[in-house]
Amino acid sequence: MPSGLSPFAIGTFDEIGSFTRARFPHRHDFYEVLYLTGGGGVHVVDFEPYDIEPNSVYVLAPGQVHFWQDTEQIRGRVLVFAEEFLLAHPGGLLPAPGGSPLVRLRGDQVGLVDGILDDIDREYRAREPGYATMLQAHLHILLVHIQRLRRAHPSVPVSSSLVWRFTRLVAKHVLTERSVGAYAERIGVTAGHLTDLVRAALGTTPGAVIRAALALEAKRLLAQTDLTVVQIAHRLAFDDPSYFGRFFKRETGASPGDFRRDIREKYQIARER
Among 80, 121, 159, 227, which has the minimal tally of Cβ within 10 Å of its Cβ? Predict the structure, then answer.
């Protein structure tokens, strides 16, 4: 990329690298669009398993943990980019943290997404004058179409731009900020208005979103690292590890130790890493 532009790449799973098919929990600091055209097995995203099927699109946000299980001949394309590469604020284009990362394509939708990815791939490989701007435009079009497909599936929640900003802020700052009022101030609304927006878009409260984000980060650390429960409690800014244990069990239904054991046994994580 020319100087000053954020990272961007597109290619097959083999071209982007074997790490894209890693069988152990890992995460990235950039966005990924995964377009699967073939293969079998399970794609696990933040501990939710999704059966691998052709014509499936996953949009993964920075920080999400994912890995592959019992996979066979995964085929498709991988597109990676930084948030700063987008033409506009991504609030209306990308799924809110905690939402489903998956859209299954049907009928004409397959040709539509294939065509856009072909255009992106050609621009990326040819690198003619102005190609970076063309890539940004094509990426914007791709994300708009994916968001339209989300709206066509009632089971996939689509949030407003303000709610997206709130959930992204929580995902980025939950280790240091857990006040609903502080997030509302950052966004420029009252805490009451933020509560109304979150209830309407997600069917829950801002406080519940914050607690869920904190519990999810705890799950990620328990599955992905060998940190002790006490170390994880401190990493998550809990002064009292026993209180962290009670919080985690209240949010997830399991103790931290039980969760780590069960998730690693279920997905054979310890053996794969």
Answer: 227
